[in-house]
Write a structure and sequence with these properties.
10 strands, two-stranded antiparallel sheet, 8-stranded parallel β-sheet, 10 helices, alpha/beta
């Protein structure tokens, strides 16, 4: 389901030529959402009595993805539902062992913007405790649904995350915390599933597949360079379930890595750069951007 919230997305702009040690014109991060059956259980696609602990996104897709990233020496953030701490702790450790960071994504992809403050606080405490229990640290946070809603931003700021990732294009620092946004058109599902096609720009009516995704992402890179901006591309591990989709990620990385205008960096690196150079980035107030997943 796609809902309208807030105002229309615009591509943000800050000071130019401040990205990374080489002064690149723009920066791009790769991020990955979801793992295992958590999101499908929450959405009711899988029933509560579905056997758990043997999802192909963990046994098949994640190892292929980690190998592709390792071959290209690219680091990313994986925003993972905390239920996976119970179901797949070794898979989470394999992500960290490969040099990537873990990000917060609720307990099982529940839309946080729909819950009240007390429930949201309970979910935050439960999820943080789950990662603490298996000795893993969360670097960033991306709320399921991509928006803040009526919740206070302090819910995330007070949790101690190094950076936050909401939908939109407003990047900068909020209370000293880097905001690393993503545009809805940069989410893989917009190109793979009919129900999300209208999130593309211009809106679509049907899937266009990995080649359509690659073309659109490279076009957005040009827009990001033109304003000296920052963006994140969002892929979902359970949807990287074919060689064609995996290869598209590899080709995108290769194209980005060859572009001397871009700093292809992990969210951790970008966040550190922003906090070390606060004068180069605007202080922003977060505003939700439409639509919402």
């Amino acid at each position: 389901m796609i809902e309208k919230i807030g105002t229309h997305e615009t591509l943000g702009e800050a000071n130019r030529g401040v990205w990374g040690p080489d002064g690149r014109q723009a920066t791009v991060c790769l991020t990955f959402d979801h793992l295992g059956e958590a999101a499908d259980l929450q959405a009711g696609i899988l029933t509560p009595d579905t056997p758990r602990g043997a999802h192909p996104s963990v046994s098949r897709d994640l190892p292929h993805l980690l190998a592709l990233l390792a071959d290209r020496d690219v680091k990313a953030t994986f925003y993972i539902e905390a239920l996976n701490c119970e179901l797949y702790p070794d898979a989470l450790r394999s992500i960290v062992a490969a040099g990537h960071s873990l990000g917060w994504h609720g307990w099982w992809n529940e839309p946080m913007y729909k819950v009240g403050f007390d429930e949201a606080t309970a979910i935050m405490e439960k999820t943080l405790a789950a990662f603490d229990a298996i000795g893993l640290r969360l670097a960033g946070a991306r709320p399921p649904g991509g928006v803040l809603g009526e919740l206070p931003l302090s819910l995330y700021l007070d949790a101690g995350f190094d950076y936050l990732s909401f939908s939109g294009a407003s990047y900068g620092l909020t209370n000293g915390v880097p905001m690393l946004p993503f545009a809805w058109r940069n989410v893989d599902g917009c190109y793979y599933f009919e129900q999300f096609s209208r999130l593309r720009v211009p809106p679509g009516r049907e899937p266009v597949g990995p080649r359509g995704l690659l073309e659109a992402h490279l076009d957005y890179v040009e827009q990001t360079v033109s304003v000296g901006g920052c963006t994140s591309f969002v892929f979902h591990v359970p949807w990287i379930d074919s060689s064609e989709r995996l290869e598209a990620i590899g080709e995108l990385i290769d194209r980005l890595a060859r572009d001397s205008r871009l700093w292809l960096a992990s969210p951790d690196e970008v966040a550190r750069w922003m906090t070390d150079h606060p004068g180069d980035f605007p202080t922003i107030t977060h505003h939700d951007e439409p639509p919402v997943w």
